[in-house]
Amino acid sequence: MAQQGNSYRADNKFISKGVILLSSLGLLLFTVLGLSGCKNVDKKSPLQVFHYNEDVSVTTLDPAFVKSQSEIWIVSQIFNGLVDLDAQLQPVPALAKSWEISEDLCTYTFHLRTDVNFCFVDKLGQTTQRKMTASDVAYSLSRIADPATASPGAWIFAGKIDSVFSRAFLAPNDTTFVLQLKTPAASLLGLLSTNFGFVVPREYARYDKSYVSRNPVGTGPFYMRRWEEEIKLVLRKNPHYHERDSQGVALPYLDAVNVTFVKNKQTAFMQFVAGTYDFFNGLEGSFKDELLTETAALKPKYAKSMKAIITPFLNTEYVGCYLGDVPGQTNWLQDVHLRRALFLAIDKQKLVRFFRNGLGDPGDAGFVPPSLNVVGSKANDAATATSNQWDRALQELKKSSYNRQANKPVILLSTTADYLDMMVYLQETWQRLGVKVKVDIQTGGMLRQLRNEGKLMLFRGSWIADYPDAENFLACFYQPYCSPNGPNYTHFTDLKFDALYQLIEAGSTQKQGDDRALHIQQANQILIEQAPVIPLYYDKSIRLMQPWVEGLANDVANRLVLKRVKINPKRP
């Protein structure tokens, strides 16, 4: 591992000089691509080590508290849950080898694997193991549900279980775990596949939160060996891991995972191009035009030096409309005709093409991404013919109370600097329509705070699914979840929608699938017609990887699964 660390520092120095000396982006990329093949191969480690960078800080590795993608990716290498999701995002066995659901849909009985062990690490880096039992599962889930833990994942059990946890989480023997609900919850298995469903050892109860956050102990394919905050994190292969491939070979194939924390995206990307990193997620805006065509494909001059995976992503990018009362002033956005006009005026195909290089699909099918198979929704019939959307927008604006004002008031559109160009495009579009808009730039933290407090009128937002179910997107408009008590940042209220959401939340995907799908479609259609948000596009994720990386895939949840990844030993 020391050799790998030295190699990283040398490459970092080289890239820094290259950035200073060369101003042309295309020339710099070609220079790095050419020189990266001349690195000293004697410094390569014989170990199978996977390198990638995170530009977002990691502050905790306790699965009860992780929220960012950077943290989730790391803890998902260290921990497992009772269930996992396959490539189609359907629940499959993980720590539980099988389960049964009672007729009333309230009792889930999980039969646990008997070959699963926790990987404990001492100060010298030596590993020991202890068998996982049902009592560990009961402790893990009760820990999430317990208000004293203050986990942001407590909501997954809110209102669904008895307040006495020993009645909700039962361990009748070491290999059987029973989860008892008060009411059916259609998305339960999906919720258990998230990091809030990861199983931790019951020994966690002896330690405070700060200790656990930096000393993770799990059953996953890797364990944490080293963590220098804001610098580097090293995971090593768990020698006690239970999974094997179809040939009987123990997983994972990798010996280690090396994560660095270079905050500058351009610097990190150039290090990827130089071969320092095996994988790079997403693209910094200044590189999109250089690497991608307008249809989201790698340009031919880069296709031989790297591989790309582009996948629909369960993320809806949108502009939210605050619908609550504003003390001392008129909230013009409470008028549905104005909201519809704003939605119809945007050429979303052009927006995706020019601002995203095709990395997305136009947001014309409502708030729920089409990849969740919501069919039959029509965006006010506005998306059926792009040629007459502008005329429809003008018609809706004429019906609005805003249009009847002699002196048109200015509506504030709040965003972060990363999306400024796109929001200026919206501003210009809406001002051509006849709506005065001013762009307001906020930091990410301040925008979230003001949004949660109902102090922003129009705000750019994105909703990434916590779990792969349309219910997760529709929850953003359920009246009891109005912020700050939940994710209903628009304060949208509709009795029919709320009734449908309650049916969706309780309905079983297995036993009442057709009815539930219809309810999802109906709820999504209400959002289209009432337009509390203006969907801009449904995101796509892009993963770039080196030619020597094998077995790395992606799915619509943008998960990072490394247990089957290999580094080709014939790499340059």
Describe the model.
The protein is α+β, with helices and mostly antiparallel strands and 572 residues long. Among the domains are: 80-209, Dipeptide-binding Protein, Domain 1 (Dipeptide-binding Protein, domain 1, Alpha-Beta Complex), CATH 3.90.76; 313-540, Roll (Dipeptide-binding Protein, domain 3), CATH 3.10.105. Helix content is 31%, strand content 20%. It contains 18 helices and 21 strands. It has helices at residues 2-21, 25-36, 69-78, 134-145, 165-168, 188-192, 209-214, 265-273, 285-291, 300-303, 336-345, 348-356, 389-399, 420-433, 444-452, 470-474, 495-506, 513-530; strands at 49-53, 83-85, 91-93, 96-101, 107-112, 117-121, 127-131, 169-173, 176-180, 222-228, 232-237, 256-260, 279-281, 307-321, 360-362, 411-415, 437-441, 458-464, 533-545, 549-550, 566-567. Strands 13, 14, 15, 16, 17, 18 and 19 form a seven-stranded mixed sheet that branches. A hairpin with a 2-residue loop joins β8 (169-173) and β9 (176-180). α11 runs antiparallel to α13 (389-399) and α17 (495-506) packs antiparallel against α18 (513-530). It is globular and about 75 Å long. 42% of the residues are buried.
Broad CATH class of the domain at 313-540: Alpha Beta
**Helix fraction bin:** 25-40%
The beta-strand count equals 21
Q: List unreliable stretches of 5+ residues.
A: 1-24, 30-43, 379-387
Structural class category:
alpha+beta
CATH topology of the domain at 313-540: Dipeptide-binding Protein, domain 3
Strand content: 15-25%
Q: Total number of helical segments?
A: 18
Largest sheet: 7 strands, mixed
Distance between the termini: 19 Å
Large-scale geometry: globular
From the alpha-carbon coordinates, what is the Rg to the nearest angstrom? 25 Å
The CATH superfamily of the domain at 313-540 is Dipeptide-binding Protein, Domain 3
What do the pLDDT scores average to?
87
Q: What is the CATH architecture descriptor of the domain at 313-540?
A: Roll
